[in-house]
Amino acid sequence: MKTTNNIIRIALISALLMFVLFPLYWMFVGTFKTTGEHFTDPPKLLPPRISFDAYSEGLANRGGKGLLDSFIIATSTMILSVGLGSLGAYAIGRYKWGGKNLIFILLAIQMLPPVSLALPLFLMFNKLNIVDTYPALIICDTCFNLPYAIWLLQGFFEEIPIEIEEAARVDGSSRWQIFTQMVLPLSLPGIIAVAFFTFIFAWNEFILAYVFARTKVTPLTVVIPTMVNADTIRWEQVYAVSIIAVVPVIILSLFLQKYLIRGLTFGAVKG
Amino acid sequence: MITAQANKKTQSWYDKAFASKLMTPNIIVIIVICVFPLIYGIFLSFFQYELALPSPIKFVGFGNYLKVFGDATFWSAVKVSFISVIGGAALQLFLGFGAALILNRDFRGRSIIVAILLIPTTLAPVVVGFIFRMLLDDRFGPVNYLIKSIGLQPISWWGNPQASLPGIIIANGWEWFPFVMLVLLAGLQSVPQDLIDSARVDGASDWNVFWKIVLPLLKTVMVVVVLIRAIEDLKMFDIILVTTGGGPGIATQTMNMYAYQKGFSFFSIGYASALSYVQLILALILVRFLFSQLSKED
After folding, report:
1. 3-state class of A129 per DSSP?
2. Domain range holding B242?
3. Shortest Cα distance from B19 to chain A (angstroms)?
4. B279 and B145 in one domain?
5. Do B141 and A224 touch (CB under 8 A)?
6. B5 close contact with A: CB closer than 8 A
7. ipTM of the complex as predicted
8. Number of domains in chain B
9. Three-class secondary structure of residue B268 per DSSP
10. pTM of the model
């Protein structure tokens, strides 16, 4: 009975892993094909050759620029969201600034249809002449990220026992010192989790980038679809640039798995 | 609770001033990039504003909103949006719950398996869309090859209006079921073991333990996770744009896609604004409904 159960379990886990890994494998194999080899019946499930030409071509064909732009936008968004978010989260989490409703208003921002903000922002940025610049995308991504960052961070700040902070007050530390020298270091795991999340969000963000990016600033999520809109789709390049886009995130998430899990489950369990 | 009360006691005008100082940069950012554009957007929705045409901007009151309610394409988009949200929730809950139950046992290599299963959730949806566009290709995709090899009719995923929405739901479900799995796994682990043990002592079968104890305790977590997924799936855009672009015809055009198209392809600024606010109201109704399910449990 026990062994049958185990066999069933192993079979189910294998099926699950296959289901998750096969699409990734398919993309990876695709980078080794020539343009015609993507359209064969039966499909080629094994790499016809091992050649990294598609990667170097993809990088040269705007993929390299995309990688740089994605990195600049995601890093800046991360720094801004965590920096601003931790200030706000401390005010809300510890001092109950704005009362209970504020946090729900912040979450309501999360529900806004992207077009409802993208459209007026587009008109504003157009007037200010900052469409197709880094600030346009960084500002937008930060705005969509900030409520989430505040929400997550205030939960982490609340977990710090207030007695420690009160003791530090008695010892003569200023409120600002308590915040920067105690609260922030103590909630480092939470801050890493939130930093990681805001980075991924901005790295993967598409609709805003699609609206605000033109030719000067082109993050990877915009580069990849434009490669598909070309006359002949070079799927091997599309997949090579896609791999370049997802590998940094996958590596980060494997290293920061603990924080990824915390960030993903925290909202749901706390909420 | 105790900390909240202690907190209240130590709160003085000085605290509030300090907290306000901390909040100021956030408030400025949110007002400038969120609140102001929103108000501007609502303002725009009362005008006939065709950016691509030379016609002048004209105040039309609720005209755009009335037009939305008479717009058959909009109602089709509402239907598509709700089917994708409900179908997506069902698929993600089914796969996520199944995976959570399989993994809710300590064994060697479990954390590695969880790490691997979480990979899809970290990918850019654009990339997921392009993977599935080829995976589900009519003639050359491996999925149809598999379907053919077991003797069934291949499915024209992106060409058939009946199949394209399921195709999108599958791609999106592949990306997000691990999130549902992770949350439910956390929920399963919070079910007190002694409760299960004592039920077993009283002679309850595994089946009964699951239906009568585990499932009721998980209901809140399940509603919350469906709520989060519904809010996110209602905003789904990337995968649809890169697989079907809303087609064939308007078979996969969600409210989001429709508002985007009106705003950024046709530059009907006023009408697109109105569309996006009607979408917001429908989203609020959906969330309200799910929240009422949540409080019913308490």
Report:
1. coil
2. 67-297
3. 5
4. yes
5. no
6. no
7. 0.91
8. 2
9. strand
10. 0.90
